[in-house]
Amino acid sequence: MAAPAVEATAATALRSVILRARKAAERVGRDPERVRVVAVSKTKPVALIRQIYDAGHRCFGENYVQEFIDKAPQLPEDIEWHFVGHLQSNKAKTLLAGVPNLAMVHGVDGQKVANHLDRAVSSLGRHPLKVLVQVNTSGEVSKSGVEPSSVVELARHVNMHCPNLVFSGLMTIGMPDYTSTPENFRTLTNCRAEVCKALGMSEDQFELSMGMSRDFEQAIEMGSTNVRVGSTIFGPRDYSKKST
Predict the structure, then answer these.
(1) CA terminus-to-terminus distance, the chain
(2) Is pLDDT of 4 > 70?
(3) Using CA atoms, how far apart are residues 240 and 230, in angstroms rounded to an integer?
(4) How far apart are CA 76 and CA 79, in angstroms?
(5) Mean pLDDT value across residues 23-50
(6) Nearest to residue 220, comparing CAs of 15, 13, 85, 23?
(7) What are 54-74's pLDDT values in tens digits?
(8) Within 10 Å of residue 14's Cβ, how many Cβ atoms?
(9) 224, 113, 110: which is closest to 174 by C-alpha?
(10) Where is the Alanine racemase N-terminal domain (predicted)?
């Protein structure tokens, strides 16, 4: 179990992050209610997640399928779960079956995974799943995501050929040392404009998932609707507990 002192610290940190997010939105005249703080709880114990839940938060994100399907059933059903990052196509149905209250996937990076998710939603008979297309805005070879020049093509595929998915916007993961900030945010907002024009979507209803612990305020100021904050809330990661 998580120690009480750690739990109290995490709840306090959460309140601070939410306040900072609201202020960032207000600085640029945005509605703070349009910004979602996804508390990324990968490698963190269920007891610590429950403490954040008990503090009133409902939106959580996980990165590893096996860890996710182990933890989700131990937590309340009204949590709004988000899967963040690269998802292997062969794990799409396992994820959806194991997390019935999965609200959104941040990280569709190709037609294959989109098709697998679409079929999994259909076979499980669940309501349509919101997805964000992942864009490689930093140009790193090791990074998942489509190139900016291919975003419209993948977004159109999801929108037209995956009836059980709801194409909701775009996401990006910047460089680990944050040196790609804010250029990666600018690239993603440019991609949003292109996709909205191509698909006839309104930018006001378009989701952007960008910004993490060290740059989420800047991301909000540049239009992010989902900021993925982990270590600032939960403390440093213990990757020895990672499961794929």
Answers:
(1) 22
(2) no
(3) 16
(4) 6
(5) 97
(6) 23
(7) 999 999 999 999 999 999 999
(8) 21
(9) 224
(10) 24-237
